[in-house]
Each structure stands twice: as C-alpha cells, then as structure tokens.
Amino acid sequence: MIARRYPDGPSTLSAFGGMASSGSLSRVPGFLERVAREYGPVASWRMPRARFWFIDEPALIEQIMTASGYDVIKGRGLRRMRRLLGMGLLTSDEPLHLRQRRLVQPAFHRERVAGYAATMIASARETAEALADGETVAVDALMNRLALRIAASTLFSADVDDDADAIGRAVTGAMAAFPASLSAFGELLDHVPWHPATRRFKAARADLDTVIYRLIEERRRDPRDHGDLLSILLSSRDENGDAMPTELVRDEALTLLLAGHETTANALAWTWDALARDAAVEARLHAELDEVLGDRDPVPSDYPRLPFTRDVVAEAMRLRPPAWILGRRVIRPIRLGSWDVPAGSVLLTSQLVTHRNPRFWTEPERFRPERWSNGETERLPRFAYFPFGGGNRVCIGESFAWTEAVLVLATLARRIRFQGLDPSRVPLDPLVTLRPGRPIIMRAEFRSAHVSV
Asked: Cα–chain-centroid distance for residue 184?
C-alpha cells in the first residue's frame, strides 16, 4: 500500500467556494469549521496558487508558531497588509522583524505597562462620565474610540481625539478593501486606480499617514525623551550610528497604533455583548467589583485582585478571538507531525475554530468564564488557546492588552451596565480582525455603585 503524500481534505472546487467569495471573507470561518469536523486535525487541499494545510491540533500549531522564521514566513494576508502597514512588526520577516522587535520591546516591559495602567483607568473613567444614564450607544464604536485614545496616550504621549473619527473611518475603509486584495487578482487591483477597493484603500492610507507623520514631526520639534514608544523609535541608531529612516518609524508607529487599539476594542465589544446575554455571569462580575473596589475606581495594583474580571475577558476572547486566523507560507520543506510539508505550501490555523473544539473544551459554545478558575483549563494542551499567537512572533503587546482589557472592563462595569437592545446574534465580520458584523447597540444604565469622581 502506497503511503499518502497529503492528508485528506476538501476538493479544490469546494475549497474555492468556501474561501474565495468575491469581496468577502464571511464564508471562511464556517468553511474551516467544516474542514476540521469532516477531516480531522490535519487537512489539505489544492488551490490554484498553492497547496493549503489546515491545522487544528495544538501540538502542531505550536510547531508552526515556533518554527524558524527562515523556514516559514507570514502568509499572504499579512504580506498584503504591507500596502498599509509597510514593514512594521506585524508584517516584516527575518532578520528585520527580530531587529525591530528587540528595539520596540522596552516599550512593553512589565514595569512600563504597569505605568500605562493609570492612563488606561483614567481614560475609561472619562468615557464613563461622558455617558448619561439611559443613553443608547453603539458599544463597539465606544470601545474603539476608548482603545484608540489609550494607545495614542500611552505609546505616543499624544491626544488623537480630534482625529479619532478620521482614523476610525480610515481603518474601516482599509479593512473593507482587504478581502478584495486577497482575491486571485488582488495584486492587479493595486494598479487599477479606479477600482472601488483600490480607491478606498488609497484614501485610508493617506488619512492615516496624515496623522502619523504629524505625530512624528511634532515629536521631532520636541526631541525630549518622553519615555514612550515614539521616543524609542526616533532615538534608535543602527550599527553605523544612523537613525531609523522616517518611513520605517512610520511603519512601526502605525502598526502599533492600529494593532494596539483594534484588537482590544474588538475584545471589549464582544465581552459586553456576552455579558448582556448572561445575567448570572454579569452579576458575578459586579459582585467581584463591588467587593474589591466598593465605590472607587480601580488602581493599577488592583489587577491581580480581579481574577473573575480577567476570566470574563479570557472567555470572551475564546469565543470571539480578535485575531481569528493565522497563516504561514513554507519557504523550506518542513516536517509537521507525520507529514512532510513541501516548500510553497500555505499553513492555516484558526483560533476561532480551535478555541471551540469539543476535543478540548467542555460546552465549547457556551460563555462560561468559570472554566478558567475551576480547573478545566489546567488540563488543556498548549495552543488549545492562543489568542495572541505564540512563539517568536507572539503579540508583543500581550501584557498591555490584558492589562487594558481587565482595567477598562472593571472601571466601566463598576459604574455602568450595558443593557442589550437587540437579542439577535451579532454576526461575525471576519476581516484582518474579528469585528462585529453590525453595531452592538446598548443602553447604558448607571449602577448603584456609580459615583462621580
């Protein structure tokens, strides 16, 4: 009997229908779930450009995440994002990625993140105090503005409130143009200036560049060390003593501004949606906040005293992970488990699928924050849960994101409960991040613990 060269998987026609919907990625999560259910933890299929592999096995996901950057590189999705982000941490490959990561790392050291926490709390308090009791709000938009303010204040010592609407529109425009850029003719669209996706993308990039280059220019006129990311970028020197090129400063600054608010904003939006649908979990959260905080806002040292608040965020990111898919392209043949993966192959993993795999999770579709403290998750294999990726490409801002999400949730939930107004399920909008597919409209109701500070 001849050994199979590739694992079983869907036909090319089926895969094309599941992955290549024109102008949309909406079918991809469902397609990958079907692949995992029908073909098991390792599946493979042929597409016109390459052979694809889908991996839903934690041990193999770990292999992919920890593979050498000279064997596997970023997949086509993030490489296409270079049109917007340039060669920042999210999109660059080795050796540039390692050099830039070492440079940026000090801005995310534990002590520095602890210093950012006070700004996170203050920004959340201002957001709460700007709301009126009974006011109707789009919570996803509210979290986006708040997370953007926090990222700009902490990483760039800047106030971008006046630019928030322009940045929000630009990011949404770039996200909307992203699926078309992944089509079979995506590269050709870059050279078709009248195509709607190309126009949206160019307008979005121009708007974001206006903000970022202004921040860089303002800092260069005031070159004091502000102790933030922008100071680190502008003061860095290479082995020849030369400053970082302005274009690369722009790429890193834009990458971290967008990545530093987009994912956390989505995590918080999905968290509020889940809480509004489960009164028992919401009541337990409020009980912890009332016991630990009473009638005051949190302080940075409260973070470890809010374990259930963290569990709520962790569970929301399990069900609706902001980073929902990861792709790698194999550039040198690798061994993956019992399979030989040839160069040119595309490896896909999906947090959205693995985080709800019934082989690892009890009641995988239910929102159960208690699973994080009752011993269930202690038995999980590594990489059954990987909302921030892993290996040498793990999200550099992971501790920043956890700190922000927990302290913002605590600050707001102590004062306010968001009452859902639309009981229908919020659809997914799977783009670069997992966004809500419609506005999450809620009513802000002051709690008895609310007190104006």
From this structure: 25
Structure tokens that stand for 364 in this block: 């995988």
How far, in Å, CA of 282 to CA of 53, rounded? 40
Of 254, 434, 330, nearest in space to 76 by CA? 330
Report how far residue 61's alpha carbon sits from residue 327's, in angstroms, rounded to the nearest whole number: 11
Q: What is the CA radius of gyration of the chain?
A: 22
Would you say 229 and 210 are in contact if contact means Cβ atoms under 8 Å apart?
no
Q: What tens digit of pLDDT does each residue of 301-322 get?
A: 999 999 999 999 999 999 999 9
**Residue 6 belongs to some domain of the structure:** no
For 162, residues 6+ apart whose C-beta sits below 8 A from its C-beta are none
Specify whether the CB–CB gap between 170 and 207 falls below 8 A. yes
CB atoms within 10 A of CB 35: 25
Measure the CA–CA gap between 146 and 70, rounded to whole angstroms. Answer: 38
Domain-located, residue 3? no
Instruction: Give the domain extent around 268.
Output: 12-446
Question: pTM for this structure?
Answer: 0.91
- Count of domains forming the chain: 1
Question: Residue 2 falls within a domain, yes or no?
Answer: no
- For residue 294, what is the domain's CATH number? 1.10.630.10
State pLDDT tens for residues 341-387: 999 999 999 999 999 999 999 999 999 999 999 999 998 999 999 99
Q: Is residue 7 part of a domain?
A: no
Helix (H/G/I), strand (E/B), else coil: 272: helix
Q: How many CB atoms lie within 10 A of CB 431?
A: 20
